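Per reviewer request, we include the raw input and output of the structure prediction for the construct analysed in the revised manuscript.
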Amino acid sequence: MIEVQNVTKYYGQVRALDHVSFDVKKGEIVGLLGPNGSGKTTLMRILTGFFPPTEGKVRVAGLDVETASLEVRRRLGYLPENVVLYPDMSVRAFLNFCVRVKSDAATHQRHQVERVLSECALEHMAQRHIGTLSKGYRQRVGFAQALLCQPEILILDEPTIGLDPNQVIEMRELIKAMGGKTTILLSSHILHEVSLTCQRVVIIDKGKIIAEDTAAGLSDRVQGATRTLVRVAGPRAELLAALRALPGVREVSVQDSEGSNQEGHHFVVTSLDRAIARELAQVVVSHGWALYELRPMTLGLEELFVRLTAEDQKAAA
């Protein structure tokens, strides 16, 4: 649904995007991650037809954004980072104005406004002037206008900015519920938030794509090995010896913490074998020890991003 092919963008002599290529499949939720100034907003403005790329091609819903800009805009909803609202209009009046721009069927317009007011929990604010709303509610109004007329594609630039923790959870659940029906590309510099919402991650830094995969896949790439958490009851020395003796195990570290009310010992097993979980379970059960927990571990996205950008800097040196 979204195809970005070798896109470069210059602002004068400054290169904001450098030969960027990726795609988003129908119904997929993809996160575009990067620090402030990495090129995320520039890319989203190109995708939504605000301005053209210096080089390269962008297709949205099979349409060239440069040659079919109006038709592309009919197919998508866009929430910019700094959404433009009219402070002297009420929430309902603003949404009525937006839906008239997008649709010419009066009954359809009324239905769409009521739908987005409900989905974004704005019914009780419908008659309030936008200028009197908190930043969080203004963000909701911006999101509501992006949802009008049920767009095939949603492009969301920092959708949770300015929201309180409860509103962030509500927004996250709303976005996730649209997966499979609506194609979504959202940008953020909050890595944890994207890991909870998106099926795939594209990481951009200094205008270049430096990584593209699931969060787990990126973690495996950086670690170069599989880490598994094991919580088991038994004699610690014997447990350590048995786990370390397994083929493919490179390291076993003890992660017990003082004051923990969880039963058993915590171990992190680093191995080169992705199928090590079965062997870990077998060795514990064969010794008659109690196995409480066995799960794969991945790097947190914060640490992952730091390592990936460090890799990119070394490659450029």
